[in-house]
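Protein Entry — a single chain follows
Next Lines — sequence and tokenised fold
***
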Amino acid sequence: MDMSPSQNKTKKAKQIIRVEVIADQHCEALSEIGDLYFWAERYEEAILNYQKALELNPNMEDTLYNLGKVYFKITDYQKSVEALVNASKLAPKNVTVLRFLAIAYYYQGDMLMSVETYKKCLKLQPDDLEINVELALIYLHNLKNLHEAEKCFKKCIQLNAERVDLYRNLLQIYQQLNKHKDVFNICMILGDLYLKKSDPENARNAFTTALYLNPKNAEAHWKLGLAMHLLGHYDLAIISCQYGLGKLRYNYANKLIPDFVHPSSDSTVNGKR
């Protein structure tokens, strides 16, 4: 029995749908096989299956992302970037894809594109600590942009005030910028953090550096004495603590009596001998 033109169109439409369903299932299967090869570290087979899947359906975001990761694994950063760029076009708000793309740009040597991609990540997740740290490190070590690096590390410290490495990087920036007062303040913070982490040796080093910049600071002397005590250097601890206490008493007395002269001075009040 002959079918009418409308029946023929309906039949062909159903056939097309059936073929599309089979193709979708086939490309998903190829992508899953690619995943298995990826996990088994058989990267060439993984790439082959991902590419076959993408030939059937070029709009598979996860497959493009995984293809980018495989190329990254074999250090083909150019192809990694290409795959990840295509994945990011399909999912422009996927921070996981964007962050990996930023890393791929970094390894490719394209620092400016890496920075721009990290900024896209931070527009979506401004309080992600690790993304902020990675961007700060690029500004510091690769682009040598100390002012941007300073802003980034300050933001990182706002997000986590307990990470020693953040202060150490900020210390490096202030040393290069010759901001001695800021170097002193960071050394004091580092010393306190080291004491809190039961690391008196690094605390001693931090407070010693602080005193090099401000030799008469009473608090630094007192805390250096505490670090020395924890290290078992009791004589040095007593000297530092006594000096610190003496300075604290003098500072307090000077607030009460503006003309107060420290006992170690050979002068007396009002300049009389």
The mean pLDDT is 85. The first helix runs from residue 5 to 39. The radius of gyration is 32 Å.
